[in-house]
Specification:
mainly alpha
């Protein structure tokens, strides 16, 4: 009697998170700098999108990252590992947690690509014409929201925060973060952003 073999089960497709590189020399967890940069990028997204926090949770579900980003409280705790936060949580951020936040950042950046390009173009035009940001309504709104979020959430006594004590310095940071978010939208943007967080830390 011929015995039929059970049907072969297809190999599980690699998780999205596993597509981000882990080169030699990578630390065992996210560094202070990496945690700060990730939180700042998410802060910029919140300034761009009034529903940014909800969008982050929805993106985690859409990307299949619910086992890592386990709801609102977990997301807040991860972001609060940024040592510059007013209520910073002294806890590590695993590489998988950092990867998940990078994937969410890039996912939302792609959805906001048109707006990000418009704001950066507006910034360049105003700079060339030596005009104030108030001449571009959407850019002025983004910058005002970013300054408000930053000052409400960061610890003003930290040296890394004191460096951004003026509107001009915060505006510069907000524009720099827009450039990084646009960088996320390019080819292999998530992997390039992920590796950039560890510049000088990996061989």
């Amino acid at each position: 009697m011929q015995v039929q073999s059970p049907p072969a089960t297809p190999e599980e497709s690699p998780k999205l998170i596993d597509q981000l590189s882990l080169p030699s020399g990578m630390p065992s967890e996210c560094s202070r700098r990496a945690k700060t940069q990730i939180d700042f990028l998410l802060l910029a997204i919140e300034a761009l999108d009034l529903g940014g926090s909800e969008a982050m949770l929805a993106s985690a579900r859409e990307l299949g990252l619910e086992d890592i980003i386990r709801g609102r409280v977990n997301l807040w705790l991860l972001r609060s590992s940024n040592p510059l936060r007013r209520f910073s949580q002294r806890q590590p951020m695993s590489l998988d947690e950092g990867k998940a936040l990078v994937l969410i950042t890039c996912f939302l950046s792609k959805r906001l690509t048109v707006l990000i390009r418009q704001l950066l173009l507006g910034y360049q035009q105003l700079t060339d014409q030596e005009l104030s940001f108030e001449h571009h309504f959407r850019l002025a709104n983004y910058l005002a929201r970013f300054r408000s979020h930053f000052r409400a959430r960061m610890n003003a006594n930290r040296s890394g925060v004191i460096a951004y004590s003026t509107d001009d310095k915060l505006n510069e940071l907000a524009i720099e973060l827009l450039t990084k978010l646009l960088f996320c939208t390019g080819t292999d943007g998530a992997n390039r952003l992920w590796l950039s967080l560890f510049d000088g830390e990996i061989s």
